[in-house]
Amino acid sequence: MKDFQYKVMDPIGIHARPAGLLVKEAMKFGSSITLEKGGKSVDAKRIMAVMGLGVKQGEEVTVKADGADEEAAIVALRSFFQSNF
Amino acid sequence: MMKSFTGKTVFDGVAVGKILFYGKKEEVVKREKVEDTDAEISRLEEAVKDSTDQLGMLYEKALKEVGEANAAIFEIHQMMLQDEDFLDAIRNMIRTQNVNAEYATASTGDHFSQMFASMEDEYMRARAADVKDISERLIRVLARVEEKEIEGEEQVIIIAEDLAPSETVQLDKSKVLAFVTRLGSSNSHTAILARTMNIPALIGVEIDPEWDGKMGAVDGAKATLYLEPDESTLEMIAQKKRRQDEYKKMLLELKGKETVAPDGRKINLYANIGNIGDAGSALYNDAEGIGLFRSEFLYLEKDHYPTEEEQFQAYKAVAETMAGKKVIIRTLDIGADKQVDYFEMEKEENPAMGYRAIRICLDRTHIFKTQLRALFRASAYGNISIMYPMIISVQEVQQIKQIVDEVTLELSQQGIAFKKVEQGIMIETPAAAMISDLLAKEVDFFSIGTNDLTQYTLAIDRQNPKLDAIYDPHHEAVLRLIELVVQNGHKEGIWVGICGELAADTALTERFLEMGIDELSVSPTFILGVRKAVRECNRQQADNK
After folding, report:
1. Searching chain B, which residue's CA lies closest to the CA of residue A51?
2. Cα radius of gyration rounded to whole Å, chain B
3. Is the CB of residue A68 less than 8 Å from the CB of residue A30?
4. B124 at A interface, C-beta within 8 A
5. CA-CA distances (angstroms) from residue A7 to A62, A78, B63?
6. Looking at the DSSP assignment, which residues form a beta bridge with residue B327?
7. In this predicted model, which residue has the larger pLDDT, B198 or A65?
């Protein structure tokens, strides 16, 4: 299992369109990928759940990947977060 | 008896025609008992597949009509529709409660949309409408209800309570004369769409479904819908319509054509815009780039300084929308007639000549640096240039360059990507025009702001209506200054454009060409008029004068 923490800078947070992009990115990997905020954890491959987490600017999230390609997933997702959120 | 109803115009224009009330049929979803739940679930899977295809087609249609940024919502709808949590909930309900797929979808849709509706964040609350939109689509497909379309060949004025983005895109626009809704905002998808497609649109009108089938007339300039218009109103609208039709004809003729004079000289014809939504209108009217993106809206719309991130997103969005075309963003031009409370500026006797624009930026450098960082970061996503307003001296430009150097050094140290950015200045003070030979050595381009240049040259306050009679934008003094600036710019090998109102004045197009102007930047709706003037300008004749 690999993970990283990220503080969201985007003023609207993880809203519809970026949430969609995140799900697409997560789907590229076989590992199970979760997004956590304040003790609540959701499957990053499910858009309603990701949107439902309601991540806002300034909030910290934890991204976890667990599976065969977890290493690659974390690298890709970290750079995805940096350039989108 | 004619009646009139006033609202707010989101896109100007006129239209006369039959009114069509576009109402959602309230689907009454009945709960039915289902024995074969497996069959019901496969019926659901089929409907999900068909709905996904429908959304795919909508995406393609929107992509062509309004661009990627506005089409993206349908891709999100597709993903929401295929969301496993959403589908699992529906399947579960069918299986455990032996209910029909329509009922399970409606009930699950309600549940999910309530989850969003109860969130604190206003933006997220709006997602409740998206969930509703996709659930309704799925139910329509399940129940084999046809989507409402405009019947017949006749063009109509659409009236509705509100229009969802999917509805606006779905409508056959060749049959839509105008949109009139009761709800919606100037920034709603429908408003953006109407502007992008040049369809007259009003919001905030107290519409009544009873109007369906009656005659109506829309006058965007007056933000008014006339119900059963009388003869004189129709005549007035008809006149405006003739002008509008001429424009539309021109649009068809000139869209995609080059802005080139008969002698082969090419002008860069760009658009002036004031917010991200206008970028769509710029593209629709075939702007070759953005010559002036006023960044003030970011500051005026807020009650606090916009953060670097907020600004970055806005600049990036415009750069991406314009897809590689030039986007010239003017740094903060606040002060004078544009005041913002949180800047806490002292009251001035003469604000037009006071503490404004670059003067504020060079004094409160933290505000300026935030904006520059956002601009340089956004440069990585398109073809951005930066332009500085209200320059009067070489020292100011040098000071700016020093701050820019600090900002770019910081970005490189932090490993943040940015591109080389063309930097230019506005020439809008007589001082800048007079020393344009010196300024030209310092910058990549000049853009002449004729509104302020005229006001300062003629010493006439633009805001004073009493002086309108002597405010002469064609004053020889102003034209000579423009010519001087062009000459001085060209001597140093930089390009010179005009982004003030004068740029759209087709009585001067020929004169500008003679001067050697390289670029004209005008409001989106003037673009094709100016292109026409350039293409028809007879320079040979001018040369032989």
Report:
1. B124
2. 27
3. yes
4. yes
5. 9, 11, 33
6. B290, B384
7. A65
In chain B, domain spans = 3-24+148-249, 37-142, 255-544
- For B349, residues 6+ apart whose C-beta sits below 8 A from its C-beta are none
pLDDT digits (tens, 9 = 90+) for B148-164: 666 677 899 999 888 87
Q: Which residue has the tokens 């769509």?
A: B280
Cβ contact, residue pair A47, B313, below 8 Å:
no
Ranges A14-28, B143-157, B342-356: which has the least confidence: B143-157
Whole-angstrom CA distances from B436 to B249, B329, B481 are 41, 21, 10
Closest partner residue to A12 among B72, B73, B123, by Cβ?
B123
- pLDDT confidence of residue B482: 98
* The CATH number of the domain covering residues in B3-24+148-249: 3.50.30.10
Domain B37-142 in CATH 3.40.50.720: no
Contacting residues of B for A52, CB less than 8 Å apart? 115-116, 119
Q: Is B13 helix (H, G, I), strand (E, B) or coil?
A: coil
* Partners of residue A13 in chain B, C-beta under 8 Å: 121, 123-124
Q: Is B205 within 8 Å of B7 (Cβ atoms)?
A: yes
Q: Flag the least confident range among A12-26, B140-154, B194-208, B306-320.
A: B140-154
Domains of chain A: 2-84 (3.30.1340.10)
| Token pair belonging to B314 | 């806005």
Q: How far is it, in rounded angstroms, from Cα B487 to Cα B495?
A: 10
Nearest to B295, CA basis, from B280, B313, B270 = B313
Give the Cβ contact number of residue B238 at 10 Å: 12
- Tokens 């369109």 appear where? A17
| Tokens representing residue B310 in the block | 């907020």
**B255-544: CATH topology:** TIM Barrel (3.20.20)
Give B455→chain A minimum CA distance, Å.
Answer: 39
- Phi and psi (nearest 5°) for B339? -110, 145
Residue B404 CA to residue B394 CA, distance in Å, equals 15
Query: Measured between alpha carbons, how far is B498 from B507 in angstroms, rounded to an integer?
Result: 15
Asked if B119 is an interface residue toward chain A (Cβ–Cβ < 8 A), one would say yes
Identify the closest residue of chain A to B122 by CA–CA distance.
Answer: A12
The percent of residues in chain B predicted with pLDDT above 90, rounded, is 59
Residue A10 sits at the chain B interface (C-beta within 8 Å): yes
Say how far apart CA B23 and CA B16 lie, in whole Å: 21
Angle between helices A16-27 and A70-84 (to 10 degrees): 160
Of B189-193, B211-215, B446-450, B461-465, the one with minimum mean pLDDT is B189-193
Give how far Cα B52 sits from Cα of B60, B142, B342, B347, B381, Å. 12, 13, 47, 58, 30
**C-alpha distances out from residue B119 to A18, A67, B108, B122, Å:** 18, 33, 17, 8
Question: Does B361 participate in catalysis according to the annotation?
Answer: no
Distance (Å, whole) CA B77 – CA B34 = 28
Which run of H or of E encompasses B422? Answer: strand B422-427
